[in-house]
Each structure stands twice: as structure tokens, then as C-alpha cells.
């Protein structure tokens, strides 16, 4: 990306691992042509999950119908497949890097005006992809 001007934009996906939409995940797996055995593996991995909260007074358990289980070997792979539509935005003036639920966009332009235009276009495209995935940005961060 040879450019005179560069912008580095850091984005944090709000509650990313907790809000991963399972129907969207399975549409994504289907669109990439994953074989049935892999989709079934993921389905049964996610099926019948529960969230537990325990303190000195009570214990609560609720069924879980979204999210990406953390602290497992397969979770990063599931998450990377889920957000891949963002990572493959193909523009010569863009480099994207993901770090778990954080995205870093390195955007280039020959002039300051071109950089501004490129940044606006790329942020709009990223926003559209996040919306398709039913994810939101954490504006506070």
C-alpha cells in the first residue's frame, strides 16, 4: 500500500463474543461451502449451551442461543469464520488486521483529501458488514 498519507483506525466490536448470531454463522458456513460434517460439528458444539451465574445467595442458569464460547480451542476459528466478510474487504488502499474482537484498519491515500474519502468509504463498508453480522461497535472505546 504505497501511499503518501495513512490513517490507522482502531475498532472494538461491542460484546463481540457474546453477540455472535448463530443463524448468521450457519449462513456464513453455508456460503463458504463448508461440508455438512463440519456444520454439524459446530451445531452440536453450540446446541444446548447454558449460561450460569452463581453467588453466595443464588444460582441462575439460562439457555444460551447466541455467542461464541470462549476459552476453547475452536472458538477463535469460529470467530474468524464469522467475521471473515470484514477481513476480506478487498481494496488496494486498505489493510485489515483482527485481534480477537478488535479490528485495525490501515487506510492509505495519495492526498489528504483522497485519504479522507477512502476512510469514509471503508468505514461505511465495514459498518455494512458489521450490520450484516448483527454486530455493533463499542463507541466508548
From TrEMBL:
The lineage of its organism: Eukaryota, Metazoa, Ecdysozoa, Arthropoda, Chelicerata. It comes from the Eukaryota. SUPFAM superfamilies: DNA/RNA polymerases. This is Reverse transcriptase domain-containing protein. PROSITE patterns: RT_POL. Residues 1-141 form the Reverse transcriptase domain. Pfam families: RVT_1. GO terms for biological process: DNA biosynthetic process. It comes from Araneus ventricosus (Orbweaver spider).
